[in-house]
Amino acid sequence: MSGGAPIPVPVSGDRILCIPDLQKAASQKLPTSAREFYNSGSTDQITINENSTAFSKYRLRPRVLVDVSKADTSTALFGRRLEFPLGVSPAGMHAMAHPDGEKATSRACAKAGVAMGISSYANYPIADIRSACLSSSGIPQIDHVIQLYTMKDRAMQLRIIREAEARGCKAIFLTADSPVLGVRYNEWRNDFRTPEGLEFPIIERDTEMIRKVTHDDTFTAFNDDTHNWARDIPWLKSVTGMEIWIKGSHYFPGLHRFLQKLFCYAPRREGLATAISACILTAEDTLMAIETGCHGIIVSNHGGRQLDGVPATIDALPECVAAAAGRIRIHVDGGIRSGTDIFKALALGAECCWVGRPAIWGLAYDGQAGVEIMLETLRIEFKRCMQLTGCNSVKDITLACLGVYRVDGPLARL
Question: What positions does UniProt annotate as the active site of this protein (predicted)?
């Protein structure tokens, strides 16, 4: 090699260098039923695949000869420092990937300095998950949020909220895109049932109660398909001071006109925790979240597991950001597989990103250590992307950092 370039060091074939490596290694360890439950989307798998591939249409516009020796990846969420703008999304049944389940994930998040969501279908109590990340002084090192569905049993929903408040959770992530479950052929083919021995303490069910019925039947028994903005958001605001964030909505009538323009032209209660959030994909639902007093939204399509054929979240993000006009905080999840993906999402207007499946793959690969590998991989990639684009802080990451390919081929400024 010329110019004193370093000679590459051979790397063993089983070393995890990137998230696709982790996915492959983890998937080889999981039994078929669990692997397809975690890795599959709904119906024809269109949305789950586009969630990750859609990032490739956005190209980076680097600035050169910038001193990036002190580049800082940190940001803040719920008043606490994050080492970089990432959280682990709430996802059910971590213990199906590793016996330590959500406790291992919580410890890994604490070590990495990122936030974590707790699913209503977690296999450990909120108290255990929070306690797993205690510092030497007995204080949780990270913030957690609690994920909720709209439940038929209001009393149970209120018990979950009170427990989350008591344990110090900062927000409710209200999953709003699931009046019913999506059409999940792989779960049906495998007659997916919860493995023996898993408990569901947050929704007050044990393994035998869950295993008697299918996943669809379990969900239908709990979930309220009459949910609506006018009833459910005011009720939540009346019973908690936690922030409310909305997660999940699929109606997107403006998508065609928006993408055509984009690609063709270059241009409470006091004394409690503080917020509420939900899955959103549209300008219309972004405005509804603002009007009903939600604190934030998650631009999300449930990892492609609900309605197939909705847009990738990275493509839905710009419309939601434009509609919000700075009036509500916006996060995004879905398809993030690299630090560069995080960078692109922030450039398009997200405040923070969340990952779900990568954490599951980390657990399946090597428990807490596997989740740590995943988080450190994304952090390193994100910092390197910042440095190579000339950004010294997350505030430097703006729309000016991105280009997008027009429908006729040339690269356009956003």
Answer: 302
